[in-house]
Specification:
It contains four helices and three strands, in the order αβαββαα. It is α+β, with helices and mostly antiparallel strands.
């Protein structure tokens, strides 16, 4: 159902503005639903982001964004800044330390 909503959102946004791009970012350090909410929230607050949807089964977040307002590096930085690895960008260590235990990697709990 979430994938269908994402596809529909993409079609609507693309129809209104041809400058919307779709990318997937690996979030291999995400552990739970709270992680998904934190990552989606951080991305939707980022400049140029139209929609963000985490898939915990694949440990990826799909992001719809305006490439005239932001770039992949900024999206990865938004995720890192809340304590998660984004593609090859490491998590911000201070933010990671502040995460609840359920959101930390098993070896750090």
């Amino acid at each position: 159902m979430k994938k269908l909503l994402l596809i529909m959102s993409l079609l609507v946004l693309t129809g209104c503005n041809g400058n919307i791009e779709n990318t997937k970012i690996d979030i291999s350090s995400a552990q739970c639903g709270m992680c998904a909410i934190t990552i989606e929230d951080a991305l939707t607050k980022a400049d140029g982001v139209k929609k963000a949807l985490v898939n915990m089964d694949d440990l990826k977040v799909t992001v719809l964004y305006d490439p005239d307002k932001t770039e992949l590096k900024n999206l990865e930085l938004a995720i890192s800044d809340v304590g998660y690895q984004a593609n090859e960008m490491s998590a911000n260590l201070d933010a990671y330390k502040r995460l609840p235990n359920c959101c930390k990697l098993p070896e750090d709990r």
